[in-house]
Structures are given as structure tokens and as C-alpha cells.
Amino acid sequence: MALPNCSLKVNRELLDPGFESYRLSLDSIPTYNVELDAAVAEVKLKDSQYTLDHVRAFGMYNYLHIDPWYEDSVYFVDSKGRVLNLTVTLDTALGKPCEMFRFESDPSSCEGEQLCASLSLTSATWATLSDGTGKLTLLRTSKRGESSHIKWEPMFSERLGEPFIIVHSLAHMLSHVYTIEVLLLRVQKDPSDTKGSGFSISLEWITVDNSAGKKEKKYRMKRRMMKGKSVPHYTAVEPRGKGIIVASEKPFAFTEVDGLPLEEPPAEDMEVENSDLIYFWQQTEEDVTVCVRLPEGTTKDDIRFKLTVDCLRVGVGDHAPLLNGQLFAPVDPEASTWTIKDDKSLEVSLQKRSEGPLWSEVVLGDRRGEYLMSDEQKSQLQQRLSYLTAEDLNPNPEKDKPPCNAQEMEDCDMFPEDSSTLMRFDGATLKPTHVVSLGSHQFLFSVHIDPSEMPAFCLRHDVDALLWQPRPNQDNDIWEHISTFNALGYVQASKRDKKFATCAPNFSYAALCECLRRVFIYRQPTPVDTVLFNRKQGRQVGQVAKQQVANLDTNDPVLGFRATNERLFVLTANNLFVLKVNN
């Protein structure tokens, strides 16, 4: 059965088609420097970690962790095995980072493969920690904002095999039992991958609760394993552990539960003769006709048909739907019809809501249909594409716009070759329930906007950068467009040395940092105090979006980068810089 295809619905009210550009502002950004007692616990890639996936997972790891529950509070691990915290109350009186926890033994002294230590702030009172050698520790932190001087107490510790990094965690109450969900990422050697890099990616979903002994420190652990072929751009557990969302260039699938391989159930899809194609379709400027092949003996009463403005569902009896998903473009349900032809096919006539534009597919992402083009349409298509086979590069030089020359395209106009997907998996069945083809929507960054919700993620849409908030409790639109950073998609692509990107939780600015020294800040448009005119268009400019650049006083590479509504935090090997962006 084909996966239920969804789409990311852009909120047009959050777009600014009149946005012109960012104006460079020479206003200085107050920058404060905290010198560290010991270097950050950076673990550099070894010769055996040579693939692009190793670089994405570990080489580009963000060593700085921000506390979504307590503003302007950040954490990192230093080379002495200490988890340190810096909470800013007054920029001009920054203290030294405080020790919250210390590893029992120095992780760097362990034999065998080692990754960087990773930290995830699970809730307002819990945290999860990995030492980089394969050990997971759950820590009770108390209320960190009120008791920043109290050291964290380890409540659960377990070795879980090969080294990993923690990519997400959360805590919730499940049947009156306190439960913690953790996602672990590994890049493992895969002998079966003879044609690729020789490595595969695993995501392990760990659930830990104390139902085994509520009064004692006894915990029960459940392990679920996913496998894939590329490091995910984004992955997070839904609130209350009801599911998991993964965005990656290549799809993931669950393979094990508690060490036992998942058995693939027999296919429940209906057999419609022996062919991959189950429907054929044609179109004119006014309508689309779809012929869906039916099993023998199908009657009118067996048909399950549902049509809305933008969705179509066709099924037979209680079987899985033959066709199900979002339509390429809106239709008029009242003017659309269906009928059974020769007891072998269901003919569906869809009336286009907007005449003219031709569809490239019927249901988004469904490749099980064949498009039948009329002779007239073939002739029109050949005329439109005739210039591609002409001897001259521009057969009609009188045209205002000559054909596009790919050699003149800039790097920032290119998109990755692999088409990424965004998938939601159900926590009970471990099967995908929603899938979105991201296509050319390049992944930019993820950020915590609200600690009670999943992390948001930012994608490039044309030249803009759009911020999406997962809302799994909503049945239809489980990914909501919540903010837009104008032209940031184009701007960030031109920064060849970019390492990290982020934004403020209140969307007041977005920020990029390079591998070394430079930080770029892009503010949302704000009203101007003075009268400005656009000379080209002869009109008054009411708003200006400012760009600012900060140069850090260091030669060390940037290891961590986080933003709050008022400040940017930049971590290097020996310093923690605090930039006061908003007052």
C-alpha cells in the first residue's frame, strides 16, 4: 500500500512578496567573553570516520546546549569530564561556568572508539547524558533555574553497546508512571553495503520508566531500532511518546524491538492483476479523467469513494485504499463524478477548480499511474520543446529571454541531488503514517521554540527560509508554518564557510556562524524612524531589515552556537562568547 502522502501547506500571510533585501547595519553588537578553565571536550574525527555521514553526525556536532525551560542558560562538557552551566543575568558581570555534574572516570581514557559527550535537557527537572563511549545516564537536575547551585543526581545508568550521541529526549507521565524517551544516533559499519560507503545509520528509540519498582530505583527499559542510509537532518520523539518524526535524504524503517527482528506481515494490499500500474489518466485544461483498475466481480456497492477539494480516496470494501492522498491541485467536488466501466475499471472525472494549468500527477507522490497524452497535446509539447533540439543555442534571438544557461547558475541556486523525505512513524505500530517529499526544500536548522512542543525545523522554500512546527495532535496538517525569514534561504547558501544556523524563539532574528570567527545576524523588518525612498520605484520605504556582522576575538574554530530572544552564545575550544542582540 502506498504511504499516505501529505504536503507542507505554506501560510501565505507569513510571506512578504515585497521584501527587497537586507541593509548592512554598522551598529556594533556588544560582545562579552568568558575564558574557560579547561578546554571543551572536543573529539575530532579519526581516519576510520571518513564518510560524509560521520562529518554530519559528529564533525558538525553542536557542543553547546541551551535550556528551553530557563532563558539565557547554556551547558557544555569540558575536557575534565564536567558538565558546566553558564546562566546570564547581567552581561557586564558574567561569572565563571558552574559545575553541575562530573563523569566518574575520564571518557577520553577509555579504550576503543569514542565519540563526543552529548547532553539533552529532557524536562525542567531531568537531563540525559552520554559519555561518548556507549553509556547512557539519566540525571535528576531539580528545577535548574531555582537551584542552579545544586549538582545533578544520576538516577539510571546503562551501557548500550556501540558509542552514540543523543539527538533528542523528553519526559512525560504514562499511566501515572514517569517515563523518559531518548533518541540515540550511531554510524555503524555495514558489511552488507558493498556498493555504498560501507556504513549504515541507526536510530535507537529508548523508553525508560520506573514501573518495575516505584518506591525503589528500579527501571524498565524498552529499545526500538531504526535503520537508514543517511544521517537524519531532524529527528524527535512526539510528546507522550506517541510517535517519532524523521527527516532524512534516505528513508528509515524500524528493524528491531528489544533485540528481536521485526517480522514483516504479509501484504494486505488488493491484487489487481499482475501489474505495478493500477490507474491511467488523461487531462484537458478543464478536467482530469482517472481510470482505476478494479478486481473482478467488483460492484457499485463495494466502492468506497471520498472526494474533497484537495484530497481523493478510492477503495474497494474493507481493503486498503487503491488511491489515497492529496491531489495535485484543487478540484470542484460537486462537478466531479465517478462510474464503473465494463466491470473492470472505475472512471473518475475531476473538474479542475482553475482552468489552464496542466497537472504533472494526480495524487502527490503516487507513481502507480500512467499518463496518456492525446495527439494534440503531444504536438503542442513538441513545439514548446523544439528549441532544445535546435542547432543554435538560441534559435529565436528576438526573444526577450533566451534559454537558461546552467553554467551561469550560482552555487546557491543548486539543490542537493537526493530528495529528502519527512516521515512520521506511529509509536505503537512502528509504521509510517505520514510522509512528505521535501524535494528541493533544503534543510537549514532545527530549534526549540516552546519546551512543551517538539523542536521546530527550518526549510528553504525558493529564496526564503520557512519555520515549521510539528503538531502531531492535529489530524491533517501536522506540520504548521509558524514564521518566515525573508531571503534567508538564498543568503545562507552563499555562505560557503557556514557551520551553524539558528533563530530566536520569538522569531525576531536568524543567525549564521562560520567555522571561524564571523557571525551574521538577520533581523526581521522593522519600521524606520526617518523617511526613506526607493529610488528605482519612487516610493517611500516603511520598513527595513537589518543585517549585522560580528567578528569574534579568537582563532579557535566555533564548536557551539545557540540563540535566545536577547542573546547569541558562541562556544569555541577555550572561550564562550555572549552577544547581546536585543535589549
Automatic annotation (TrEMBL):
Main location: cytoplasm
DNA-binding listed as a keyword: no
Entry superkingdom: Eukaryota
UniProt subcellular location: Cytoplasm; Nucleus
Claim: Membrane is one of the keywords in the record: no
Keywords: Cytoplasm, Nucleus
Chain segments annotated as coiled-coil in the UniProt record: none
Domain CS per the UniProt entry, residue ranges: 274-363
Classification via Gene3D superfamilies: 2.60.40.790
Any single Gene Ontology cellular-component annotation: nucleus
Listed PROSITE patterns: CS
Name used for this protein in its record: NudC domain-containing protein 1
Species this protein is from: Sinocyclocheilus rhinocerous
Gene from which the chain derives: LOC107739547
